[in-house]
Amino acid sequence: MLPRLVGATIMLPLLLALGCSRQRAAQVDERRNPYFLEGKERIGTRDYKGAIAAFEKALEANPRSPLAHFELGVLYEQHSDQREDDYVSALYHYNQAVRLRPHAYPADNARQRIASCKQELVRSQSMAPVYQQTIRELDRLKEENQQLKRQLETLQLQAASHFVAPASLPGRQSLNVSSPSRSAPEPTATETPVIVQSNNVASAERALTPKRARTHTVRHGDTAYSIARAYRVSVNSLLAANPTLEARRLKIGQAITIPPP
User: For the ranges 23-32, 56-65, 193-202, which has the lowest average pLDDT?
Assistant: First the structure.
């Protein structure tokens, strides 16, 4: 019985050492894959789409490469369009890296990135209704702007049709402009509508001219709700006036356009 125990005690470290050496050899083989090397080179030149294609080919050559899976996860998460399907692809590759090598690099790094991807997916889903509302608000504002332009053009045409040139007014043909002793005649009744109409057009143009937008510089503690309340506008109007604004990621010193109340 004692010799067996001694033999097992001796063999266990040998097996562990053999397993570690095989693992290191597998990592070396992964890094020597020509497609893996090409992917790393393309990352260095910021050719991220080319890097994704190279690592995909590396996985075709070696489907059990956790390093290739991890590199693809990073590319999809940080160097893509960062849409929902990009985060889903990143999660898949991170999970594969953990499954293939759960107790060594890059498993711990992949687990941290998995948590980050999940947070981004939750955030994008929670902001989806606000985004859709912003799109609808922008469409409505565009339509209102077009209507105001059409109304202004109509008023300008009406003003032009009512305007009468001084030379064509009654009694103007007998006027001797070169005579300094003759005073100008009093405006006739036909001239009055011209002045009134012009005033109306000017008032209409002033009324249709949009108010100049205000801006607010983000300070510490500001939120989208507090800014909207301070300027007496709705949060939806504030987001519509700032399409690229991320309500949950306001930055101190960021300039925000305030829509008219």
Answer: 193-202
Q: Could you tell me the CATH number of the domain that includes residue 75?
A: 1.25.40.10
The CA distance from 191 to 167, in Å, is 12
Q: Residue 18 pLDDT > 60, yes or no?
A: no
DSSP-derived letter for residue 80 is S
The lowest-confidence range among 118-132, 176-190, 209-223 is 176-190
- Token pair for 68: 């290739």
- Classify 66 as helix, strand or coil: helix
**Residue pair 161/193 in contact by the 8 Å Cβ criterion:** no
* Residue that finishes a domain, picked among 125, 160, 189: 125
Number of domains in the chain: 2
Structure tokens given for 214 = 């205000």
| 258 in Cβ contact with 216 (< 8 Å) | yes
What's the CA gap between 121 and 83, in Å, rounded?
9
- How confident is the model over 218-234, as pLDDT tens digits? 888 888 888 888 898 88
3 state SS of 182: coil
Instruction: Take residue 243 and report the two structure tokens written for it.
Output: 């399409």
Task: State the distance between the two ends of the chain, measured CA to CA, in whole angstroms.
Answer: 90
The domain containing residue 36 runs over which residues?
A: 28-125
User: How many other CB atoms sit within 10 Å of the CB of residue 77?
Assistant: 21
Tens-place pLDDT, residues 114-123: 999 998 888 8
